[in-house]
Amino acid sequence: MPELTILHTNDIHGHLTALARLTTVARAEHAAAAAAGRTVYRWDGGDAIDRRFEPCRLTRGASLPPVLAASGVTLQAVGNDIGLPYGMLALEHVAARATYPMLAANLRDGTGPVVNGIRESVLLDAPDGTRIGVFGLTDPWNGVYRVYGLNMPDEQDVAARLVAELRAAGAGLVVLLSHLGLDADRRMAAAVSGIDLIVGAHSHDLLPVGEWVGRTLIVQAGNYAEHLGRVDVTTDAGGRLLAAAAHVIPIPHDAPEDAVVMRAMDDLNVELDGIRGQVIGDLDDPLALDHFGVSPVAQVAAVALRDRAGAEVGLIGSGAFHTGLAAGPVTFGALADALPVTVNPLVSRVSGAALRRALERGVEPEVVSFRLRGLRGSPIGVPAVAGASVHVDPTAAAGQRVIAVTVNGEPLDPDRLYTVAHTDLDNEEFSYLSGDGVTLLGSDYTVLVEDVLHEYLRAHSPVGTPEVAWHGLTPT
Questions:
Q1: What residues form DSSP beta bridges with 431?
Q2: Which of the residues 122, 152, 173, 381 could staple to 318 if both were Cys, CB 3.0 to 4.6 A apart?
Q3: Which residues contact 396 (CB under 8 A, 6 or more apart)?
Q4: Model pTM?
């Protein structure tokens, strides 16, 4: 009877040295299984990289596929590590460098084609004649992908269609390589018949022996390359599932690092060194960061946002920055370190009253010190403002700290509408600009504030200390 082994990982999130150790264990497992006459596959459930790590930030993930390929990965589900923060073009660049198929059948606009470079499914023909159909799905994130023009179809409907198509194409064994999360995988197994195995990810669950839901086995191997998952499958002569057993293999902290992966990481570092050192502009003065006071580095970003949009006012939370910038040449790496979060530019029509309300909110101590999850550890900070001059009394009562505001030299008119360039830090979790008097005019989720700053520095260098917008503000 044909016997297969699937070695799987998920949610590595940039822990590449741990991946090198895991690969040593995976190669030993692969060799032992192959010696026993089993056909062996090595798959990944997605989110192998993470924007918290510099290799991802500098190339938006495009430099990482060679490392995964060096670890033996031959098939991967699309996670949310690239497409969600950086957009579909970045994901296409990652797929272009991947030597293995990347699967996400629901990553599309309605019934249109999947994103360029991504595939719905693959058919694998094992040497023993077993035909395996594998399809991929990724978490739709409650419709967030609409900002990239994707109205993703229902994943259960997509799964039912692909199970039927793969069976019709001769697949005896049907596998879902899933980045939906364990709860969604359980619902999928209960709702869609014909899926023999779900190799899961996204929820970072460690399932020591897997979990059966009806006739479907669900497996997942935790996270951070701390465990290798293994599934052993026995099929009949037609490739239909007869038996399956799963377990996970802990990776010892002292396991040797795989030489092939380490060479790939050396190549990665050479590539990154070249990118990191590229000069993108020049500063006459150092641009300091002070989340609780005036931040010249964020002020330059506010100016860049305003100028790019042709707006009257620019506004950005200083918490988007994690460091300032030194005087002299500004390199790609320095800016990536200073602005490591993925925020996008927006433009809104804002009444003077709503703008004043935003500025009041921007100096409330509890707001300034709030740690928004997306800022990766920074407080929201005092917002930097361009095109406006704001006088404050920090000792006044809440809601009365802003004494006077001028916009381009004219007193703020509460009834007038102003165009304000800001960022998607103004979201459902937190917002400076919300409520009456705020109308979103446009957004560009293909561009990051980092890109806006690159463009500004290239066009305006050398850049000096920007005009101070806040007057009377003292650190809290």
A1: none
A2: 381
A3: 403
A4: 0.87
pLDDT band at 429 (very low <50, low <70, confident <90, very high): low
* pLDDT computed for residue 56 by the predictor: 86
Question: Which pLDDT score, from 0 to 100, does residue 238 have?
Answer: 83
Q: Which of 42, 19, 45 is nearest to 31 (CA)?
A: 42
The answer for residues whose C-beta is within 8 angstroms of residue 308's C-beta and 6 or more apart is: 345, 421, 452, 455, 456
| φ, ψ at 136 (rounded to 5°) | -120, 150
Average pLDDT over residues 217-241: 95
Spatial separation of the C-alpha atoms in residues 265 and 7, rounded to whole Å = 22
Residue 348 has pLDDT above 60, yes or no: yes
The SS3 of residue 314 is strand
Helix (H) / strand (E) element for 334: namely helix 332-338
How confident is the model over 175-194, as pLDDT tens digits? 999 999 999 999 999 999 99
Angle at 320 between CA 316 and CA 325, to 5 degrees: 100
- Judge contact between 134 and 75, C-beta under 8 A: yes
Spatial separation of the C-alpha atoms in residues 391 and 410, rounded to whole Å? 14
Report the DSSP beta bridge partners of residue 233.
Answer: 4, 244
pLDDT in tens, 261-273: 999 999 999 999 9
- Inter-CA distances, 157 with 104, 123, 164, 305, 369, Å: 14, 20, 11, 41, 44
pLDDT of residue 129: 85
- Burial readout 194-216 (b: 16 or more C-beta within 10 A, e: otherwise): bbbbbbbbbbbbebeebbebeeb
CA distance 362 to 400: 12
- 103-121 in b/e form (b: 16+ CB < 10 A) is bbbbbbbeeeebbebbbbb
Q: Which residues lie across from 442 on neighbouring strands?
A: 347
- Taken as a whole, the chain contains a residue count of 476
- Please, are residues 78 and 111 in contact by the beta-carbon 8 Å criterion? no
**For residue 476, what pLDDT is reported?**
45
Per the CB < 8 A criterion, the answer to whether 260 and 240 are in contact is: no
Residue 71 is classified by DSSP as: T
Instruction: Return d(Cα 351, Cα 263) in angstroms, integer.
Output: 57
Under 8 Å CB-to-CB from 106, ≥6 apart: which residues? 137, 138, 140, 152, 153, 154, 155, 158
Q: Nearest-CA neighbor of 254 among 24, 416, 11, 16?
A: 24
In whole angstroms, how large is the CA radius of gyration of the chain?
A: 26
Name the average pLDDT for the chain: 93
